[in-house]
Amino acid sequence: MRPRPAVGTQRVAKLAGVTFRQLNHWCVRGFLLPKHDGGTGHDREWPAAEVAVARLMARLVAAGFRPEHAASIARTAVVFDVTEVEVGEGLTLTVK
What we know:
This protein has helices at residues 9-16, 20-28, 48-62, 67-79, and strands at residues 84-88, 91-94. By secondary structure, the protein is mainly alpha-helical. It has a single domain, classed as Multidrug-efflux Transporter Regulator, Chain: A, Domain 2 (Orthogonal Bundle). A two-stranded antiparallel sheet has the order 1-2. A hairpin with a 2-residue loop joins strand 1 (84-88) and strand 2. The mean pLDDT is 91.
């Protein structure tokens, strides 16, 4: 029997403050990239960095950003460990 992931999708949804269905939709659309063995009935595995992307993405969407933009901004902030992301010409978003 395969061990359960340390952080499952239900937990990540709760941490991000979104529904399981919303989080799953973002995964299907390719905005979030947890590890997944494929098929149904197998939970995704969420590395810490991807949990951070999900949490920040949810905050950005709640603030009015479109999911595709929120995902890009969140991934940039997390992967490059920056607190300021340029979101347009002369427009910088500070992330805390």
